[in-house]
Amino acid sequence: MRTPQQHGTQTIERAVLVLKELAARGNFGWRLSDLAMSCKLDRGTTHRILACLVRERLVCQRSNDRRYVPGPLLFELGLSLPAFAAFQAACSAPLDRVAKRLGGMSLLCLRSGSEFVCAASVGATPMKALTIDVGTRRPLIVAVGGVSILIALPREEARTIIAQNMKYVARFGAARIRSLERVIRQSETRGFGISQSDIVRGVSAFGMAIRDARGWPFASISVVGLAENFPTSRVPEVIGTLEEEARWIARQAARIFSTGG
Question: What CA–CA distance (Å, rounded) separates 69 from 57?
């Protein structure tokens, strides 16, 4: 039998899980039944959690389609972290340089446990299959930005995360799993994130981990574009550019977070 303390902790954990799932599809929103299924909770439990979160303004229910979306209190709470806003703003310049020099779309991704969150992006790509926007949350293994963080982690930690992430992508079938395993192997061998039509056909992506003052990978910078614009002959240029900007961002992060912004 669970103690009251254990029950209280479980309730908090479930509420956090619901919030993270909502944030993963912030613009699209969730129907109650789909959200419950994604969280592996029954409808009644999910509805009770949502009702509480709505009262506290952490969640909203849109009037036009009744889907649940993140609420304004999340933004208000985020205002208490000015250093993160300053860091996000500082990264616009290196992302712009990458997008202009290399073409395609450049992305800044932050590590969030076994997932990544897109914190900023510059540029565009004509491929509709690319659905990573600012605020997008995904398992680390599903995008090169996440993989570049993953391969910079200690091997045991990385293996644990890969196993967790694979449970998520298993729903997309064996072919998807094989393609992601290929990306991970290639990236480990090369020392940077790389996908040449492996994750999305006709799209190349390259990523470089960004390390904090302790050498820990906390973010990544990546570039994504049409494969025809990134032939093998350009890989040294691409990686050299990403390495340079990753170092620049790391220096900015050290300055901003050491002074609080």
Answer: 11
100 band by pLDDT with thresholds 50, 70 and 90: very high
Question: Mind listing the pLDDT tens digit for each residue in 35-80?
Answer: 999 899 999 999 999 999 999 999 999 999 999 999 999 999 999 9
Q: Are 39 and 21 in contact (CB under 8 A)?
A: yes
pLDDT score recorded for residue 124 = 77
Homologous superfamily (CATH) for 82-259 = GAF domain (3.30.450.40)
CA atoms within 13 A on the CB side of 208: 21
Between 54 and 199, residue with greater pLDDT? 54
**Structural domain boundaries in the chain:** 4-76, 82-259
| CATH topology classification for 4-76 | Arc Repressor Mutant, subunit A (1.10.10)
